[in-house]
Amino acid sequence: MDSESVRKLSPSDTRALNCFVKLERNLVGSNPLFVSDLDSDLIKRLSGKSASYRVMERQLFVVSKGHQDLARCAALINPNYQKAKNEAVGFIGYFAAAPKSSPQVQAMLEQAETWLRERGVSRVIAPHNGAALWGGFVLMTAAFDEDPIAPFGWNPSYYADYLSASGYRPTYPLWVYRIDFSSGKYRAAVKRVAENKAVRVRPISKRRWDSDVWTFGEIMNKTFAHLWQFHPFANEEWRELFRELKLIARPSQMLIAEMDGEPVGICTGLPDLNPLMRPLKGKLSPIQMIKILIGTRRYSRAGLDNIGVLPEYRRIGVAQTLAITLCREYQKHGMKETFYYFVNDDNIRSRRFAESIGGTGRVVYHCYDKRLS
Questions:
Q1: What residue numbers bound the domain in which 362 lies?
Q2: Dist CA 340 CA 307 (whole Å)
Q3: Do 114 and 166 reside in the same domain of the chain?
Q4: What is d(CA 105, CA 73) in angstroms, rounded to the nearest whole number?
Q5: Coil, helix or strand for 90?
């Protein structure tokens, strides 16, 4: 294939960036399960105006055949991630492609890999958008006929084939658990939590929001550092992330566990916003924002997406108290089950924990990697 059909787009080129962010919707947006990211969010990140992306090196790629754009990706280098993992690793993220375009996708990925290699990268993780807490670090590899739960979306099955054909390995399996509130294990966990008087759980306070956000950030930095997809965030990054959550998150779904008045663990949950986001097609008007705010109070699905306990306070029921407190909130809302996601395949402790509170899991997502010669 002619390599000149692969184009580099500058993240500082407003017109090119707008075309880039809309391309996934143009390629696969006709599927009724597809959920588009907000164009404004992607532009903010890829232009470097987001706190997490300001430090990253970024290069956008689009591949075409004739006058038709067939795929896109971004090559990303996050020095904070490299420092945390002590590895010259880079990312290929914001991946999207049309069907029956394997040769074109391979040519595009080769160009992105060359760009990363020239900057000292020896291993590539894909698809990964450079900062895991902003999402975009997984690829759906099963359950393509099921409605995904936010904050994660849908992608076509052939994406995995494209990566495999380009030499990528499905290195990081990720589990999704369903917690059945009627199960015996769940009911037993509720009883144990009721008997545990040492752990106090409170919701995040909107009056002392910044202070509580940093509590979340400190605990997550300490407890998630071992996870392959995570690197510690600075206070500015946590504040930016939680600023976006402040309008849509319910305080009762953002929990802090305390013992003797000291914070020892955190837990966050989110309502499934996909049904509300799907009709937006990347655009958000003030009226639509009001509908989303109302919708966050009328959700029918929700999940537990983060739980962390300081190492010295594990094995004494802190995680279980946090999880059950969140689940009881969902029960009050009329739900019969909730999701617990994502759990790394090698995180045996978290997998056993999910099972101990009634969770039944399966691998639905993967992330891939490739060594660069």
A1: 178-371
A2: 10
A3: yes
A4: 9
A5: strand
For residue 209 the two structure tokens come to 């929001």
Q: Is residue 141 located within the same domain as residue 231?
A: no
Amino acid at 81: Y
Q: Do residues 108 and 191 both lie within one domain?
A: no
Boundary (domain end) residue, out of 140, 174, 208: 174
170-193 pLDDT per residue, tens: 999 999 999 999 999 999 999 999
Shared domain for 268 and 194, answered yes or no, is yes
In this structure, the answer to whether residues 140 and 215 fall within a common structural domain is: no
SS (H, E, C) 152-190: CCCCCCHHHHHHHHCCCEEEEEEEEEEEECCCHHHHHHH
Is the peptide bond prior to 127 cis by the omega test (within 30 degrees of 0)? Answer: yes
CA–CA separation, 51 and 282 (whole Å): 21
Q: How many other C-beta atoms are found inside a 10 Å radius of the C-beta of residue 230?
A: 20
Entry pTM:
0.93
Q: Which residues pair with 307 in a beta bridge?
A: 267
The whole-angstrom separation of Cα 287 and Cα 285 is 5
Report residue 185 as tokens.
């294990």
| Domain harbouring 92, CATH code | 3.40.630.30
CA–CA gap between residue 215 and residue 210 (Å, rounded): 9
Residue bearing the bigger pLDDT, 45 or 294: 45
Band (pLDDT 50/70/90 cuts) for residue 249 is confident
The amino acid occupying position 34 is: F
72 and 210 in a common domain = no
pLDDT digits (tens, 9 = 90+) for 91-121: 999 999 999 999 999 999 999 999 999 999 9
Phi first, then psi, for residue 209 (nearest 5°) are -60, -50
Q: What is the predicted pLDDT for the residue at 373?
A: 82
Question: What is the distance between the alpha carbons of residues 109 and 124, in angstroms, rounded to a whole number?
Answer: 11
- Is the same domain home to 184 and 242? yes
Instruction: Report residue 258 as tokens.
Output: 């305390």
| The last residue of a domain, from among 157, 174, 191 | 174
What pLDDT is stored for residue 134 in this prediction? Answer: 66
Task: Count structural domains, the chain.
Answer: 2
Contact 39, 20 (CB under 8 A): no
Could you tell me if 189 and 82 lie in one domain? no
